[in-house]
Amino acid sequence: MADILKDVPLRVVQVEALVVMKIIKHCSQTFPTTATGFLVGMDAQGTLQVTNSFPFPTTDLPSTDGHHDNNAASNLAAAAPRAKINAAYQNEMIRNLREVNIDANNVGWYTSANMGNFVTLNMIENQYYYQKDLNERTVAIVHDVSRSSQGSLGLRAFRLSQPFMAAYKEGKFTTESLQKSNLRHQDILVELPLQIHNSHLLTSFLHQLPSNPPTAEIPFPTDLAAISVKDQNNHGAPLFPNFDSLDLSIDPFLEKSCDLLLDSIETHHTELNNYQYYQRQLGREQAKITAWQLKRKAENASRVLTKQAPLPEDEWTKLFKLPQEPNRLEVMLNSRQVEQYARQIDGFTAAISGKMFAVRSNLIPGETEP
């Protein structure tokens, strides 16, 4: 039966609403430090059901001169899913869940992100550890705290692709190996559709929240202040829409995403310069080796004429040392992060452009509606 389930590919990740709230609460409380935890649930014929989540225990770092290093704490929290002490804690929690007859299958882990910056080496190592050692059918759920603070829930599910898993297992990310495997930065992560599931009791409660529409005519607001103030007479339903979507100001999230995109592009150019420097160094060393080999062949030719034993022609391996090619994994991850920023910016500019076109006649002098 287990082999049959493995043959069915994962199509969707179904997360319980309670798990979503627990993830949001944990990530918001630890922000800006990275928050991580593990997920339990079950695999039901291609649907990965996440029914519960537990945060990993935090480790307090010793303070230096009364100050805490936020970067060190964030790096330690990002590497928590593959720490030995957290693995023991995870096994103990799963054992306790099985005793009370609750879904106790390891289905992945979750992490927090800031401004969409989650394509990191720690994230790749954690997911590789889960897919290789714990369970092949596991996912990584990424919660973007900054995106959620703007009113849009940023919750996504990812897995490592099989070609990338094979390449990461070999540990060779050179130009030759990448050309042979035809591995690109788009092939690192595979995103799965994510659905939020509510229980029948909660669904029936949500259907009872909206009240009947008002029968009397609602007066128009007299000024802008009246729009922002909540209606004290409770007109409409509790889930009454607001006027925030009519705001024409540029989203600060968009501005910050543009800045992060520029930083990632600069990092890409730095890595490209390092690779070009390696190519120049390799070319110089190869030219020296070629010159030495030609000189040695000429010496051996003269020694043969004088009936002397020829000298070995493979001594260049001891005399010259070829430079080591830089790892291309960092470049691939940075390229994938650039793609992530570009998609974010594209999504925000679509909404803002629509607003600008809607009020174009008021923005451009002398232009009126036809």
Q: What is the share of helical residues?
A: 40-55%
Rg, Cα atoms, Å: 29 Å
| Percent of residues in beta strands | 5-15%
Low-confidence stretches: 61-68, 230-238
Strand order of the largest sheet: 7-6-5-4-2-3-1-8
Describe what you observe in this structure.
The chain is an alpha/beta fold and 370 residues long. The chain has helices at 2-7, 17-30, 70-78, 84-99, 121-134, 145-149, 162-170, 175-181, 200-208, 224-228, 252-305, 316-319, 329-358, 360-363, and strands at residues 12-16, 36-44, 47-55, 105-113, 139-144, 155-160, 189-192, 194-197. The N and C termini lie far apart (66 Å). The chain is elongated and about 115 Å long. 50% of the residues lie in helices and 14% in strands. Helix 11 (252-305) runs antiparallel to helix 13 (329-358).
Brief rundown of the structure:
The chain has 370 residues and is an alpha/beta fold.
SSE arrangement:
Blueprint: H1 2-7, E1 12-16, H2 17-30, E2 36-44, E3 47-55, H3 70-78, H4 84-99, E4 105-113, H5 121-134, E5 139-144, H6 145-149, E6 155-160, H7 162-170, H8 175-181, E7 189-192, E8 194-197, H9 200-208, H10 224-228, H11 252-305, H12 316-319, H13 329-358, H14 360-363
Parallel strand pairs: 1-3, 1-8, 4-5
Antiparallel strand pairs: 2-3, 2-4, 5-6, 6-7
